[in-house]
Amino acid sequence: MGQDGSPAHKRPSGSGGGLPTSTVANGGGRGGGGGRGLLPRGRQMQKTFNNIKITILCGFVTILVLRGTIGVGNLGSSSADAVNQNIIEETNRILAEIRSDSDPTDLDDPHETETMNLNATYALGPKITGWDSQRKVWLNQNPEFPSSVNGRARILLLTGSPPKPCDNPIGDHYLLKSVKNKIDYCRLHGIEIVYNMAHLDKELAGYWAKLPMIRRLLLSHPEVEWIWWMDSDALFTDILFQIPLARYEKHNLVIHGYPDLLFDQKSWIALNTGSFLLRNCQWSLDLLDAWAPMGPKGPIRDEAGKVLTAYLKGRPAFEADDQSALIYLLLSQKDTWMEKVFVENQYYLHGFWEGLVDRYEEMVEKYHPGLGDERWPFVTHFVGCKPCGSYADYAVERCLKSMERAFNFADNQVLKLYGFGHRGLLSPKIKRIRNETVTPLESVDKFDIRRTPVEFKPQN
Amino acid sequence: MGQDGSPAHKRPSGSGGGLPTSTVANGGGRGGGGGRGLLPRGRQMQKTFNNIKITILCGFVTILVLRGTIGVGNLGSSSADAVNQNIIEETNRILAEIRSDSDPTDLDDPHETETMNLNATYALGPKITGWDSQRKVWLNQNPEFPSSVNGRARILLLTGSPPKPCDNPIGDHYLLKSVKNKIDYCRLHGIEIVYNMAHLDKELAGYWAKLPMIRRLLLSHPEVEWIWWMDSDALFTDILFQIPLARYEKHNLVIHGYPDLLFDQKSWIALNTGSFLLRNCQWSLDLLDAWAPMGPKGPIRDEAGKVLTAYLKGRPAFEADDQSALIYLLLSQKDTWMEKVFVENQYYLHGFWEGLVDRYEEMVEKYHPGLGDERWPFVTHFVGCKPCGSYADYAVERCLKSMERAFNFADNQVLKLYGFGHRGLLSPKIKRIRNETVTPLESVDKFDIRRTPVEFKPQN
């Protein structure tokens, strides 16, 4: 984005140029009465002087107006800037077209034509039953698609973002960095990624869009044992740490939160749906079915929002969100669900960014990767930063710089194998941290994290 | 990016406002000689009239200047626009800061302090010898990291983009879509991805940056059999097609191109380095070492560019690029290298976009995925579109819309398993293409492409 070349922000400088028609001067001359020849010399000089003043002033005005029209400030700039500006303007026009989705080939979609029946409960899809046995049979019949690989249950990480460009241009850049961060972590831990950029259900758009996609993936990937939803504004910051799946053998939903905030205070932030794991089983399909009804956009979501605000402590007034709705569901139907829900807080499956991002240098000094908790957070989650949208809850500068720091903090752990590290946590540039040798495999043995899996030891 | 609110593009309208100090009038008064009292009434009126004219003119000028400064055109816009504009301006400021990399903790880097010796040949790193046996020993010692998985050689796809936000904001959005496209393909084919956003070597920046990264990955990932470099502007468009590795058992470099363009015409586009495979072996390390010397930015790259332009048919005059340099190397040292180079054109390992993007609907009508060639291109490569930069070789609109089409054409093949497809090749919206059932595993059996690998049958 180049400098605004408009001269309107620059103070006028320099004197007038050419001689515009000097109507004021003429008017002045005519208004004065009498021709020139009749005036004394002194008066004539004064008159001439006045005319010159007015001419200069008019010339000045004309130049100001002309500068605004033709952009004199741009005459000296390179044609490259002009080309750049043209490209950006054309891009914006095309963007607007894409955003308005002016594709004429829109076809009928049953979801759109059916009248919304407010009395009917919204359904994610036809009710599936016996999924556990269906899945078990399928796995037996398809041994080339086991649900465990190298002794570890298969995990699929689901994340995503809206299909259209971000309102704030920097948003797409941070989405890109965020997905690179996830690619790195998942490559090192044998986790598959699905990056969703489609709204499977118009009614469940926004933060609710994860529900239909999770269901669709559970049913389409019987070989996957766990679906791990992760927000696009959450970054991995402990590249070594591994989800301690053995902890959850008897559970189907693993979510970060605090039991006292949940059961005692009924706080709307008792749990965080920015990063959670859901097992591929009938229970999970049932949970999704029970969770979804507050989601459909419009009157249902609005009314549900009021219920949630009344019920949950600290919740502001806004439409129903998936997190509040889940908390409400788990509290109001505690006996049905809680036995299979693991409320995890021994490591940062979700780590709220504010208390973490300023301590990265201290962490490097005192601790090491693999801890996953407040000493070296597994996930740093930029709740409220919203780089893709326009209305963040936090200052833009604080957010962007913090995200940059988190990204580089994680990237350093990845680059270590390759012998590099960032020059500073705000720097995109890297430097060598280790000399190259003619025996590179010694470094591989030493630094490839896949060769040294870390075991989680909870502090409590 | 909001409207440019500067009034400099608007014609001035309205009359003057306040009364600025009228130095011209005063000067005029003083220059005229004599006080007011000494002038006849008519002359006094004329003088007054002149002063009023000058006052009005000066007021007019003042208003023009003020409008430019405070942006009167903006006073009526909504506060939301103002907030949005503020956020975007602040973002730009931060971006400029990040781009200028003002991190004070820059440390010394040996590469930077050494004086460039133009007589010395540039080296990617210390000369590695005996890599084949080093690697073989390592593989034997580390059976948990085999170079083949499920009977298929392990491939690592390397792609990337510069660490800073794109000059053109839409660029980051297409980089995001491009990496999602690669994530989808690679998930379905068991290929690992490294997304590089770091310059490992300042001298080899730009299109040359792939060389040091490829070398680093070969040496750091002995378990990987092939490194597959793919440009960020290349999209997978045949999700089913699989690289026919058996074809290349005796080769170490697989690259798209045409032998007659290469050997007969010495054309600078005889091969395309936007998508190629390099085997993990000593030969490849040697090739990289022989390839790199034309790359160092500055006089070396400039001079090398002249050599390449003189030698290669059709090459414009510009600094040495990696593609021309490789062609030159393979031609000038044909006997050393060509035996192990497979010049592939039986499918579109690289498919130039212009002749392909308008035919996608026709392809859907007549053909099917898995062919990989002009009937259903494996890769559609948007050479010259440069959405991240400013100086594209093709019209912006044509490029962006074509990339959108290619992305959706590929995405349809991925979404098919889930029962969805885009409403049109330009539409981000999707629709159901298959009703949901209570027996979803039937769809899995039918549509999961991993269950129906396709065998490549060359037409020649």
Describe this structure in words.
The structure is a homodimer of 460-residue chains. In chain A, helix 1 runs antiparallel to helix 2 and helix 6 packs parallel to helix 14. In chain A, the strands form four sheets. In chain A, strands 4-3-5-8-7-9 form a six-stranded mixed beta sheet, with helices on both faces. Chain A has a two-stranded antiparallel ribbon with strand order 1-2. Chain A has a domain of 316 residues: Spore Coat Polysaccharide Biosynthesis Protein SpsA, Chain A (Alpha-Beta Complex), CATH 3.90.550. The first copy, chain A, is globular. Chain A has 460 residues and is of the alpha/beta class. The first copy, chain A, contains 15 helices and twelve strands. The longest helix of chain A is centred in the first third of the chain and has 30 residues. The N terminus of chain A is likely disordered. At the A-B interface, helix 1, helix 2, helix 3, helix 5 and helix 6 of A face helix 1, helix 2, helix 3, helix 5 and helix 6 of B.
Write the layout of secondary structure elements.
2 copies of one chain form a homodimer.
Chain A: H1 23-32, H2 41-70, H3 79-100, H4 110-113, H5 131-141, E1 148-149, E2 152-153, E3 155-160, H6 169-189, E4 192-196, H7 210-220, E5 226-230, E6 234-236, E7 253-257, H8 259-264, E8 271-279, H9 282-291, H10 299-311, H11 322-332, H12 334-337, E9 341-344, H13 360-366, E10 379-381, H14 396-415, E11 420-422, E12 430-432, H15 441-447
Parallel strand pairs in A: 3-4, 3-5, 7-9
Antiparallel strand pairs in A: 1-2, 5-8, 6-10, 7-8, 11-12
Membrane topology (chains A, B): Single-pass type II membrane protein
Family (chains A, B): Belongs to the glycosyltransferase 34 family.
InterPro entries (chains A, B): Glyco_trans_34 (IPR008630), Nucleotide-diphossugar_trans (IPR029044)
